[in-house]
Amino acid sequence: MSYAVIKTGGKQYRVQQGDVLRVELLNAEEGAAFTFDQVLLVGAGESITVGAPVVAGATVSATVRKHGRADKVRIIKFRRRKHHKKQQGHRQHFTEVEITGINA
After folding, report:
1. Model-level pTM?
2. What is the C-alpha separation between 19 and 102, in angstroms, rounded?
3. Half-sphere exposure of 20 (CA within 13 A, CB side)
4. How deeply is 4 buried, as exposed, middle or buried, from its count of CB atoms within 10 A (0-12, 13-18, 19+)?
5. In the chain, what percentage of residues exceed pLDDT 70?
6. pLDDT digits over 68-85, tens only?
7. Domains of the chain: which residue ranges?
């Protein structure tokens, strides 16, 4: 089974065909095909191709399943004995994609 390491949204992901993963928000419609061109590594069995920094001509194709927002993260800043408390919430946007193929 071949696998690849892709870079998107400032993060790196190890993917195989059929994987479903959540990445940072992508500018694509739901159900549309998307191509990741920043492939850092491609492996198939015992052979591994490492890019410098990316593998030339390698792409990973995926389909966009849905867009959404993650669970709320609460940020609380509290100073004891100072009558100071600050609360803030944050929900990060994400895109869920399914890997359909690895082209090396």
Report:
1. 0.86
2. 11
3. 5
4. buried
5. 100
6. 999 999 999 999 999 999
7. 2-103
